[in-house]
Amino acid sequence: MSSDKDNIHEIDIDIRVPEGDDLKGSAKDIEAAVNTAISFFPEIKDYQASISIVGEEEIQALNRQYRDNDSVTDVLSFPLFETDPRGVDLLGDIVICADRAREQAVQYGHSLKREISYLTVHSVLHLLGYDHMEEEDRIKMREMEDKIMDKLAVFREQGSEVSREVLDALCAKAKEMLAFSYSPYSKYKVGAAILTADGEVFTGCNIENASYGATICAERTAAVKAVSEGQTVFKAIAIACSGSEFAYPCGICRQFLNEFIEKKAPVVLIDCNDNVATEVFENLLPHGFSGKDMGIGIL
Ligand code: THU
């Protein structure tokens, strides 16, 4: 279960197939896909959904039992359209076939992670009443899927480009972090938000100390939070500050980020007047020192 402020987001995930290496992290991906999809429907505040990952036999049996269809499909959605006594919208159940997801990932030339995220988004839309029987409905559903996948950012995992919409959301998060800046000495606030390869966002602010040298910059706070949660590939970073000049990352932060951030990752700066500048990371640290220089190929 995850909660956003005071809202209830109950996402029950049941993986009923042997969990191969390629399914590691899929529970997190499914949760992100559900929450991102629902974020496009602000009227849905509290919700519950159940998602199962099953094998071919199980999905075929379910198709037979509930759809009178003796075949293996990639997904099945069972909408509920009910609200429980707490006022939580019960969206229903989703069943994803692991074998079909694997086949389709190969067929479309993308990762299983991307395929499972897409199938989840597609099924959540079914739970909300979307359909693709008529052409007009199919177009509507596809448009909504694209918007959600764009926000989820899983679709760009192969390249380094991140959509404008995703960067805007990252900037908004970096700005929100200014409120948490602990900067009684400099009175200069910095907020940062990092987008990881999994489409997750980690935020941070500057945290000062009476022993000034112990101060931690906003960028490193965010980076440390991401890496300590297992996210070691950064796709983009946004940095907001309370000053009227952009807060380009300091030298230590550039070196620290260099360990995890893609060379082409956008670094977006926002000043106190909401002016925005974007720079590519490698321009901020040309010839940056990394494990490669020691013959250690981590990235
Ligand atoms: N600061 C950051 O948070 N990030 C940077 O890259 C530059 C500096 C913070 C640290 C300190 O709290 C304040 O700004 C003044 O140096």
Please characterize this protein's 3D structure:
The strands form 2 sheets. Strands 1-2-3-5-4 form a 5-stranded mixed β-sheet. A 5-stranded mixed β-sheet has the order 7-6-8-9-10. It has helices spanning 26-38, 56-67, 98-108, 112-127, 135-152, 164-176, 218-227, 251-258, 281-284, and strands spanning 2-4, 7-15, 47-54, 75-83, 89-97, 190-196, 201-205, 234-241, 266-270, 276-280. It folds into 2 domains: 2-152, Metalloproteases ("zincins"), catalytic domain (Collagenase (Catalytic Domain)); 164-294, Cytidine Deaminase, domain 2, CATH 3.40.140.10. By secondary structure, it is an alpha/beta fold. Bound molecules: tetrahydrodeoxyuridine. Tetrahydrodeoxyuridine binds at residues 183, 186, 188, 190, 206, 208, 215, 217-219, 247, 249-250, 253. Residues 183, 186, 188, 190, 206, 208, 215, 217-219, 247, 249-250, 253 line the site of tetrahydrodeoxyuridine.
Gyration radius over CA = 22 Å
Oligomer: single chain
Low-confidence stretches: none
Instruction: Estimate the mean pLDDT confidence.
Output: 90
Through-space gap between termini: 33 Å
Estimate the strand proportion. Answer: 15-25%
Helix content: 25-40%
Structural class: alpha/beta
Give me some keywords for this one:
single chain, binds tetrahydrodeoxyuridine, 10 strands, 299 residues, five-stranded mixed beta sheet, 9 helices, Cytidine Deaminase, domain 2, elongated, Collagenase (Catalytic Domain), alpha/beta, 35% helix
